Amino acid sequence: MIAHELPKDIDATVELLRAADYVPDRALATATFLSLKLGRPLFLEGEAGVGKTEIAKVLSQALGRDLVRLQCYEGLDLASAVYEWNYQRQMLEIRMAEATGEASRETLGQDIFDRRFLISRPLLQALEPHAGGAPVLLIDELDRTDEPFEAFLLEVLSDYQISIPEVGTIKAETPPITIITSNRTREIHDALKRRCFYHWVDYPSPEREHEIIRRRLPGVDERLSRSIVDFVQELRKRDLFKLPGVAETLDWTRALTTLDVLVLTPEVINDTLGTLLKYQDDIAKIQGSEAASILREITLKATAARP
Fold first, then answer.
1. Same domain, 273 and 224
2. CA atoms of 234 and 231, how far apart (whole Å)
3. What is the pTM of this model?
4. What is the dihedral of CA 157, 158, 161, 162, to 10 degrees?
5. CATH of the domain at 181
6. Closest by alpha carbon to 140, among 175, 183, 172, 176?
7. How far apart are CA 171 and CA 91, in angstroms?
8. Which of 15, 123, 163, 275 lies 20 to 30 Å from 9 when distance is taken between CA atoms?
């Protein structure tokens, strides 16, 4: 992987992201540029499926940096997120030393807590040297963890260092490019947010969503793409448990093109809603007359907009 220089301004950041087929708005590009330029973590909040995680993947690809991903979940602990000792290798070392009588108990106690017995997990991996420069560290869906883990992250995000009692403090020579995401299922503590630049990633405008389809799925019929975007945009105005994100728009587009659909019809919409909506109550609310009503509405608007 060939490393590239960081963008020099906001316009260069926009071009960097677009080159990797990510279509940002100006505000997101600005937040990303400032995060890269000033070496601060970028904290992205927003609904699921709007492209928060993709930012880290795109930066890794565009900058030629390794991607280190910590997928958060309830009950995440230090052994899974930071490090743990290789107990099997330690026990083997102890047995070999006992068999040969080469080491005293005191010396052996020091030897088995050497760095070679340490298993690095994502946070520690991100602080270690990487070929091509500091990696991109993605801390994904932080809101799924608990407050004690947030508190631990404060040291990592403040000084990019981790304290291991048996080894000492391990500090990054160059801080990783850090992206933190949250779906806002709970509030993240202010102490952590203060260490980051913040940006709310919203649903895209119709023009930007259409461009996303065009870049990610080239070859999709233009008329179908417009109809898909118009339908999804109207759907987001409805009172649903989970509104479809950009990821669902792309999934639905792939499904429709796989079925060789060229024109949206009520029947096609009813048959494929499961690729767009993820809850049965939402599907039941839209299927049938509501889907037909939305389709008529966007068709009338499209007809009226034609010269």
1. yes
2. 5
3. 0.88
4. -70
5. 3.40.50.300
6. 183
7. 28
8. 123
